[in-house]
């Protein structure tokens, strides 16, 4: 089967299992997940979706998320959208999705998922997800430009191809120079305004002529405030636009509303937001430097240990504005390599689980299929398919990430900055994006050693502390239960460890 046919088949298999086209309200994707808005969550057949060969796991959040992995999700999504559009347009009156049967979901699993969803649906967390939704569409460009920047830096250091490096510099830097415009566009789109007006308001931030504008006794600098200023400018533009839509007569709306939106939000940006956002951006950079230079090992331990729970809750993408601000200021983010250690702890834990459960073919098969994506920084399959459903191994995986983060943080404290020129990948996939203040060789060596520490710590913590005797007995018995079934002993162990349900 060709690649195109394979992705079409995956989309066609998923659609009826989520309740059909009429049950789908929105379709989007991030780096690894197909994100669906659904009318009726009860129509979704979770277990059958998880059983599809291309599906690595599912996540229930404000959207229903199907983990397909990088590359695959970008190809399946347009096929899925086309099928939804075609089915909706051709739907007969009697069309309707088949309801899910009660036996397809374990009662306990359904209760745990409902509890976690309710716990996550706080206004603050929903706001963070909206911020994340602004930046997720930008990640492919950030990765591509970051890798080109890394390649260009290598060529410059080696004095190779001097005629090509200016062109690579232009390609790597062009997007970052205009990122405020893209942020403004997606901010307006996310908050219900006209996207192009959001981009227009944010574009004043990167316009060279702002150097002639004076605010708070100082001349502005092009790009001052960066993505934070663009967020604020576009959000203000949305607010002004909505007020205009309510008050301006329809006959002149097309002329008055865009003009007032750009004028009011643009002036507020130039004479207030740019300066304030610039100060906040500077503070973020200084805070990150202070944190790692004064408490590198301790800070790395906390950051590496807490990142997996953020991934589990889908809140890790809320860190994207902070990473982007650091990249704008220093050329790289020192936080991402530390956070990437969480994935190393997860991989080490998975290997320990594989060895501790020699007779559980179900879990071992899942690990074998999810381990290589884990090495490349795609952690959701291992989280949702292995460690989190088992309970205690999720905690020990976090411990592995904590020790790996402490190792990299220690070197930051000693003066060796280990950073990434872009955001998105982790694990082995982060190597092409690494940068620092002491040359690429030392940066790569520290990061690689950090991964090894994370692997080892996650493995040892899980091998020796990840299972009780009862858990080992039940999980190695035949027939072996799948992780999603959460045997009673595992549930008790998870409750004692305080681990959230899958």
From TrEMBL:
Predominant location category:
membrane
Family annotation (InterPro entries): Glu_permease_IIB, PTrfase_EIIB_Cys, PTS_EIIC, PTS_EIIC_1, PTS_IIB_1, PTS_Sugar-Specific_Components
The record's section on CDD domains has: PTS_IIB_glc
What topology does it adopt in the membrane?
Multi-pass membrane protein
Q: Where is this region: Disordered?
A: 478-502
Domain PTS EIIC type-1, first and last residues per copy: 129-483
Sequence ranges assigned to domain PTS EIIB type-1 in this UniProt record: 8-90
A GO MF label:
kinase activity
Catalytic site: 30 (phosphocysteine intermediate)
Give the UniProt record's GO annotations in the biological process aspect: phosphoenolpyruvate-dependent sugar phosphotransferase system
Cellular component terms per the entry's GO annotation: plasma membrane
Q: Which UniProt keywords apply?
A: Cell membrane, Kinase, Membrane, Phosphotransferase system, Plasmid, Sugar transport, Transferase, Transmembrane, Transmembrane helix, Transport
TM region positions = 134-155, 167-185, 192-210, 222-240, 252-277, 297-320, 332-355, 444-465
Protein's cellular compartments: Cell membrane
What Pfam families does its record include?
A: PTS_EIIB (PF00367), PTS_EIIC (PF02378)
What's the protein name?
Answer: PTS alpha-glucoside transporter subunit IIA
Which species does the entry assign this protein to? Streptomyces fungicidicus
Origin organism lineage: Bacteria, Bacillati, Actinomycetota, Actinomycetes, Kitasatosporales
């Amino acid at each position: 089967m060709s690649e195109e046919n394979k992705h079409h088949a995956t989309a066609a298999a998923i659609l009826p299992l989520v309740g059909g086209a009429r049950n789908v309200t929105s379709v989007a994707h991030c780096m690894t997940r197909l994100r669906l808005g659904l009318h009726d969550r009860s129509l979704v057949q979770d277990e059958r979706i998880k059983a599809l060969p291309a599906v690595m796991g599912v996540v229930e959040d404000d959207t229903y998320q199907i983990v397909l992995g990088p590359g695959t999700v970008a190809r399946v999504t347009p096929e899925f959208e086309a099928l939804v559009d075609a089915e909706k347009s051709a739907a007969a009156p009697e069309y309707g999705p088949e309801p899910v049967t009660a036996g397809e979901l374990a009662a306990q699993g359904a209760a745990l998922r409902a509890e976690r969803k309710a716990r996550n649906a706080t206004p603050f967390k929903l706001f963070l997800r909206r911020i994340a939704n602004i930046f997720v569409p930008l990640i492919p460009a950030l990765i591509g430009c970051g890798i080109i920047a890394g390649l260009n830096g290598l060529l410059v250091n080696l004095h190779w191809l001097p005629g090509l490096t200016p062109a690579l510099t232009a390609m790597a830097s062009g997007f970052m120079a205009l990122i405020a415009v893209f942020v403004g566009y997606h901010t307006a789109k996310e908050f219900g305004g006209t996207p192009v007006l959001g981009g227009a308001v944010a574009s004043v931030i990167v316009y060279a002529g702002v150097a002639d504008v004076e605010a708070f006794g100082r001349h502005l600098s092009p790009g001052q405030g960066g993505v934070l200023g663009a967020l604020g400018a576009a959000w203000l533009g949305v607010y002004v636009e909505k007020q205009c839509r309510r008050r301006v007569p329809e006959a002149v709306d097309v002329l008055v509303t865009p003009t007032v939106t750009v004028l009011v939000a643009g002036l507020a940006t130039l004479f207030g937001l740019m300066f304030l956002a610039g100060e906040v951006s500077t503070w973020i950079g200084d805070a990150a430097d202070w944190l790692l230079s004064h408490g590198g090992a301790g800070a790395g331990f906390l950051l590496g240990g807490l990142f997996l729970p953020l991934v589990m809750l889908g809140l890790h993408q809320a860190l994207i504005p902070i990473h982007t601000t650091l990249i704008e200021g220093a050329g790289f983010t020192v936080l991402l390599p530390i956070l990437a250690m969480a994935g190393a702890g997860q991989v080490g834990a998975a290997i320990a689980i594989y060895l501790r459960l020699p007779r559980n073919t179900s879990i071992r098969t899942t690990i074998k299929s999810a381990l290589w994506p884990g090495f490349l920084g795609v952690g959701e399959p291992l989280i949702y398919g292995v460690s989190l459903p088992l309970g205690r191994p999720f905690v020990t995986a976090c411990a592995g990430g904590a020790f790996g983060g402490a190792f990299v943080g220690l070197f930051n404290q000693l003066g060796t900055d280990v950073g990434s020129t872009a955001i998105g990948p982790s694990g082995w996939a982060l190597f092409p994006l690494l940068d620092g203040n002491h040359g690429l060789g030392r940066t790569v060596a520290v990061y690689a050693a950090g991964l090894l520490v994370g692997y080892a710590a996650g493995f040892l913590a899980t091998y020796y502390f990840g299972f009780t005797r009862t858990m080992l007995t039940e999980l190695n018995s035949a027939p072996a239960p799948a992780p999603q079934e959460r045997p009673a002993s595992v549930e008790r162990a998870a409750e004692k460890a305080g681990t959230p349900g899958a």
